[in-house]
Amino acid sequence: VSELAGTSTSNLSDLYCRAHYATMQDRTQRNYTMLYDPEVYTSYWIAYPLCSAHMASGREESWGFDPEVPTYKQTSVVRGYGVPSFSTTNYEENFYARGHQIPNADRNGVDDMMAQTFYSTNITPQIHYGFNEGIWVNLEKAVRNAVPSGDTLYVVTGAAFRKKGGSETIVYGTNGNDGKRLPIPNYYWKALLKVRRSGDTVTAASAIGFWFAHEDHSSGDYTQYAVSVKQIEEWTGFDLFCNLPGTNTEGIESTARVISNWYEFKRF
Fold this sequence. Notes:
Layout: E1 7-8, E2 16-24, E3 27-37, E4 42-50, E5 96-100, H1 111-116, E6 123-127, H2 128-145, E7 153-160, E8 172-174, E9 181-183, E10 187-198, E11 201-213, E12 226-227, H3 229-236, E13 238-239, H4 249-256, H5 262-267
């Protein structure tokens, strides 16, 4: 199944758009595609397919650099970012974790694919309690549970510092591993797509997005942050799922983008 990757409407000349591959079911398959900005040590989006074959159980950590990007254009994630330089308040109250964009649990069915999720280019500083170990992980689990039986869910996940045209303040921290100054994303988001097919042609699609301010969400309820994919496109400037196959691509995308109710999406 081909990945339906998001593409950028901005200038990509200084960014790294790269795909990672690994062997699954005895053939080379795409793991994920990313758009990485070395100026902020952040991938603006990571796009990937998700099906039952990608998932199992367990976690084997292999934090390291991405071989597709020069090492000096990355920041080290071999250990946690360090305290107090990357602490929100007091270390015992909260701190910044090494947050995955594509979760390792979305790839723990294939060891090589899971190892690639620990690349620096897939990691950003996330508030630990109330976000990384709260609402964000709750959404990640829900996404895995929403994978269609015998089919594929398409996912684009991203980080943003400002909404398009915005002037939000950007907070920086110092990475204790290498002393590099890292900006902390103000927002995180996900866009999900399901499709129905007749042969190789897509006949219908359902898509939904989630948009979070990067802060302590004590309730852990991700459903109240559901938005349409069109809304995420407007806030980020990216054209998502632009490679949707089928003869009526524009019509399918237009219909899919209006959904902003999680339970409606799950029923599709």
